[in-house]
Amino acid sequence: MTIASDLLRRHIQTLVDDNAQWQTLVADDILWELAYAPSIGHPARLSGREEVIGHVTWFVGAVENFRFFDLKVYPLADPEAAVAEFKAEGLIKTTGRIYRQDYVLFLRAAGGKIAFLREYFDPVRAAKALDTPILGLDP
After folding, report:
1. Global pTM value
2. In this structure, are residues 78 and 16 in contact, taking their beta carbons and an 8 Å threshold?
3. Under CATH, which architecture does the 3-130 domain have?
């Protein structure tokens, strides 16, 4: 197991279930890119520890019984880089709708911490669960 693949596994295990522990994994200058998030009104990138933790705190508070599963981690030749694919599901508290999602996540480590994440998910599934429009679509 590489540094990055270990951090990626720990990221998935603790993000929701032990957020205080997850926060110890995050670098101060972390950059988290969310490629499709702008289509549901969320930021395309989160810069720095405070912004990342703020967004994650919102997410953790917005879901109930959220869980990640079917995790597959792929270490890369560079021990400080890894990719994962996984699934998740949970209840969106404000809508009462189940959120089911497939994710692909790229992680880069630096100094034993998560320095960079790039996350891909289906914004249509998120929009339906959150009961929010998909921005940029013509009526």
Report:
1. 0.93
2. no
3. Roll (3.10)
DSSP calls for 66-107: EEEEEEEEEE-SSTTEEEEEEEEEEEETTTTEEEEEEEEEEE
Q: What is the DSSP letter of 139?
A: -
Closest CA to 82 of 121, 115, 34: 115
3-state secondary structure of 78: coil
* Residue 68: closest CA among 127, 2, 121: 121
Give tens-digit pLDDT for 50-107. 999 999 999 999 999 999 999 999 999 999 999 999 999 999 999 999 999 999 999 9
Residues 6 or more apart whose CB falls under 8 angstroms from that of 40 comprise 123, 126, 127, 130, 132, 134, 135
Q: Please tell me the predicted confidence (pLDDT) of residue 136.
A: 75
Domain boundaries, the chain: 3-130
Report CA dihedral (97, 67, 28, 84) to the nearest 10 degrees. Answer: -110
What pLDDT does 139 receive? Answer: 59
Strands 45-47 and 26-34: antiparallel
Instruction: Give φ, ψ of 61 to 5 degrees.
Output: -75, -20
For the chain, give the number of residues.
139
